Amino acid sequence: MLPVRMLSILILLFSLCDADSICTTEFKMDPPEIIAEYGGSPVIVNCTTTLDEHDGMYWTVGNEIFQLEDEELFISHSVPVSDWNVTAECKMKLNESYECSKDLKVILFKNPEVVHSVQLVNVMGEETQYRLQCDIINVAPVQFLSVSWYKNNENIRTMSFNDTTKTPVNESLILRVDISREENVAQFRCEAELDFGPHGPKLPAISQTHSISAHYAPELKTNSTADIYQLRGTNIALSCEAEGNPPPVYNWICDGENMLENTNSLNITRVNRNKTCTCTATNYLGNITKTIHLHVEPRGCPLTLTPSETVVKFGDPVSVSCSTSARYVEGMGWEAPAGHTRFESLTAATWMIEKFQDWASKPSCNITLNDDFQCSVSPVITVYKAPEMVSVTELDNTQTARGTAYKNYPHTQHKLQCDIINVAPVQYLTVSWYKSNERIHTQIFNDTTTKTPVNESSILKINISREENVAEFRCEAKLDFGPHGPKLYVNSQTHRVSAHYAPEKNTKKSTQDIFLLEGTNITLSCEAVGNPPPVYNWTCDGKNMLENTNSLNITRVKHNATCTCTATNYLGNITHTINVHVKKRGCPLTLTPSETVVTFGDPVSINCSTSATDVQGMGWEAPFGGTGFESPPVVTWRVEKLEEWTPSPSCYATLVDGSQYTEKPVITVYKTPDIVSIYPLNQSHMTEEHVHIVPYNKNTRTQHWLGCDIINVAPVQHLTVRWYKNNKTIQTQSFNDTTTKMPVNESSILRIDISREEKAIEFRCEAELDFGPHGPKLPAIFQTHRVSAHYAPEINTSCTVDISPLEGTNITLSCEAEGNPPPVYIWTCDGENMLENTNSLNITRVNRNKTCTCTATNYLGNITKTIHLHVEPRGCPLTLAPSEIVVRFGDPVSINCSTSATDVEGMGWEAPFGGTGFERPPVVTWRVEKLEEWTPSPSCYVTLVDGSQCTVSPVITVYRPHGPKFPAISQTNNVSAHYAPELILESSTEDIFPHGGTDITLSCEVEGNPPPVYNWICDGENMLENTNSLNITRVNRNKTCTCTATNYLGNISKTINVHVTPRGCPLTLAPSEMVVRFEDPVSIKCSTSATDVAEMAWMTPAGDKEFKPGSDVTWMVKNLKWWTPSPFCSITLNDDFRCSVSPVIIVYKTPETVSISELNHGLMLKHKEDKKHNMTQYKLQCDIINVAPVQYLTITWYKNNKIIKTQSFNDTTKTPVNESSILRVDISREENVVVFRCEARLDFGPHGPKLPAISQTRRVSAHYAPEVNTKDSTHDYLLEGSNITLSCEAEGNPPSVYNWTCDGENMLENTNNLNITRVNRTKTCTCTAANYLGSVTKTIHVHVEPTGKTNKITFTVIWALPFIVAIIIFIFIAFYCRKQWKKHGHYSFVSDKDIPLNITQSNGSN
């Protein structure tokens, strides 16, 4: 028996050796290896054999074994490339005992992304050090990766990787380089490539290039100082060429002023003075400065005027020729309010006016040369107008004679005034007085500033003797323009001076009654005679009518009045009273309609008609839609598009008697609200006027505050806001603002109490414009909001729970609490805060007993649930199929070992034969083709990720048959226990938080026997779904869904609360905020990162919109004429989700004018101790006209260029307004004159535009009472008949008003000098200088000597002359003798003590 067994063993060995040669030579794959991109299409691989006799071929891919195919020479299989660790093996069974296999080499790759970054490290002298980083992102397999660095296309470094990781990884390479100044710019490139050798695929290299250069401080290309000479009026560009890296930033300063220019050149237009400009070029390594001295040279104007001076009469034609000798003329012409010419390339141009009617016209001839030099010359034009009238009037009568006393006064003094009416220019006027054709006085005028016609006067004082009785005086006015101009004479009528008497009436009645209709014109007459002619004064009902003639015109009289006329001269007065009785007169105009309500932007028309027959004409006055003066009976005001919130047209009619009537319609312009929105208010956000303290029981009722915003509605006075609770009105609010007519935003607040029994209640806010029974009926705009009662958290289940999980398993603890608002959860386990704020706590791989506490809290209270966790030992998570088996000796056997655990690292079989390696879960098979062991003992083992291991062994019975065995015949039947439905997860309540607009699937996992039937209800609505899941598409609001699972043993419910969270709007505005000037262009780009865009557009409140697909749209306005533009960008996604965003746009307008005015003219603040320290208080007002928006306005007050006050404004009005700032200041006399400046600036912060400030200055000075510079004086004796000028110099502020009196007589002189002609007697004159703070007086005594005393004075002088000559001779002799004494050695004594005596000898020695 032994040799037979040895022979069988030898045969077996020979067969095995032959099998090895077959596997290597007769067994091939095509292709032998796969190199494919991960995630691509599966690759077909053929497995081929040339061996005809074999038991079959099959594939294993990963852990999956595919079907054995018999009698095939090749088999194909599709190998997937979506698993980084995929393995494939082709096997061929040679016989029952042996098979050969071939592994397929699989390489999956992913081409990388390359990100190249550059970091500046340091600058050292001429070299700059950089740190280059090349990030290779998401590459696999890294062992085939090759990364190369290139400098200017030259490879300087290459790196490969030895990591055998198959899955994608990120790699980074760092290269430090130094760039010298000489290199200037170098290009570095990082190139990443997967290299699979000569037989692998050729993948493109992925690279990225950066250019870097050496950094250095700025350096000037030219000298640092330059002198430039430029003609005045030309344009110049200053250059500052500097090179540096990074490129320098430039700053220009000229004469200390920052020019706000950041380029390397500065343009100066029409330079007109010398200046020094400094350019500074700066980068982070340093700066350098260049100074340019600009010398401006004068340039003459090459223009000649013919004539250069002319005198022309107002209204006459005039012409002036302008010629040039220049050759390079770009153009010349005249600029003038009238007669201007076109700017043409000429050598001469003429300014010509057919009828010259401009008093202050300054035409200028302008020329522009080819080098842009400009200049102009203006002729001297004197426009004159001869006086319209020259008249002589008597100012007053200083005649002192009364009654019989007249004989004692032989002369009567008169003051005559010559009025020259409407004469120009006054500086050429000469006035001469004649008495009986003899010139007695001449006066000229020195006013060189007034060019327009004026009225001038000359006053003559005369004495008329009684013997003369009547004297004739004449005044002559002459315009004298010199030797080359015309001479014009105008004489006055002759004025006769006669006796004076008091006014007398022509009628005896002192009272008169007049009756007339309302609206008519009336002239009241008051005839009185007197000499001098009386002056009239009219008063009506105590009001001075400012009428000084004998008649009073009253236009359109409308009420009774009593008018009194008083005629007065210096001798007396007389009064006449007129009673005016007015009868009522109705307005003859009718408006159709008289009241109307119109939508903003709609057309409107109103007819104005009259039934009166005495209508001269009628029309409409309005800012727009007005008509001319048209014929009756009907005229219509019509506007096609009403875009004014406060239109104020008025219809007027003028009757033939001159009376006028007007009627105004009542026009209400409205706009319905854009939006009505409800939102809950926190009480902390509410203003005090809305908060009311009320009794409140937290256990029964919940107090809510709701706000309702009504956006962009007008007019607000017609707005009514109604609140509804479940369609029942509970509050109505109206608005009493009758001043605001433009659209505004309004709010209404509602306080409500909700009981828990009420649950959720729907509130509605409804906004309606109500214009009464005759106005339009507009639909109400509303929005609803649901609120519910609040209550503390309540737990639906027991507050203490015990659960027993297996050791090492994952568990979820549930804490379902109901409350409103939804509670916040806190979990602690054995005193440790688990940092979990949801209603469930996940514990992974539980390994010990613990006690966990869940606390659910809201602002009304909290509740606690305790869960005791009892961990049970864990069994081995392996299952054998079959776990017990009976097999015949020599038959094949296989047992599957599987696991349901998810934390398995690997598993396998250990056995003397049929064992496996350490394989991946979930199934591993022990297989023996021929069981020839009576006690086989295989065991299946598993290793978990936590390192724990366990094993199980099957029960195998091996038998050998001894006789025939007949098969048993049987039938099986499965039965199971029935039970009511139970939730697979313990929690019966679940909260989910999807985004608005997304699709969700609600799950209800229940087990029961028989299987339960499902029913879904959401917010009381049956969803007609009978499966364990419910699909909801595009969820857009919160809802509560309940799933009920039922069989005949019972039912169970699960509640799922769906909380829809807002979905972010995927829009970006560029810019999102901007500041733009009114009427400037504006554009804003709206872009999106969303890829599922259906359409997007810009929309405005006016309804403008343009929908289009794409990723960006632009809102553009060429001329922005809205103060409150409110465009918004809207987007609609493919799932119908919509949202919008609005930019912040600030529209501004700089002030038109800034002016300073005085509200009072100095208020004196007196000092008790010293009047020198008195202060003058001023109240200055700075008016800023037409500025917007005022909230960004800042007003700064300067005193002598020093800031003393700054004022800003909180008004959020967007349209232009006028604003004022008031400054109170005290000026001391020592300060004398102080300059105040008001500066207005719009400041939009660091990111807004920098607008120049607009300012104005005003000079103010301290006020003080007049002070005379000299004391009283006495003039020397004057000869009778001499002329004298008395002077009274007084200093004061305001300047003093002077008054002169001589011997009690008012001299009617208001200057500081008094001229007295032909003085004939001694007199005392007093000058009083006064202002509102006080007065001061100076007295001058004038002594007059008669002409006869002249001989006495001469005789006295002749007798005194010899004595004066004798005294002079005596003084001369004394001086001569003293000199001679000194020459002959005489000495003299000095009276001072201890002074040595000096002797002077004739020979000069001491």
From TrEMBL:
Transmembrane segments: 1357-1377
Gene from which the chain derives: LOC116332771
Signal keyword on record: yes
A Pfam cross-reference name: ICAM_N
The protein, known as: Ig-like domain-containing protein
UniProt keyword annotations, A-Z: Membrane, Signal, Transmembrane, Transmembrane helix
Domain of life: Eukaryota
Signal peptide: 1-19
GO biological process, one term: cell adhesion
MF (Gene Ontology): integrin binding
InterPro entries given in the database record: ICAM_N, ICAM_VCAM, Ig-like_dom, Ig-like_dom_sf, Ig-like_fold, Ig_sub, Ig_sub2
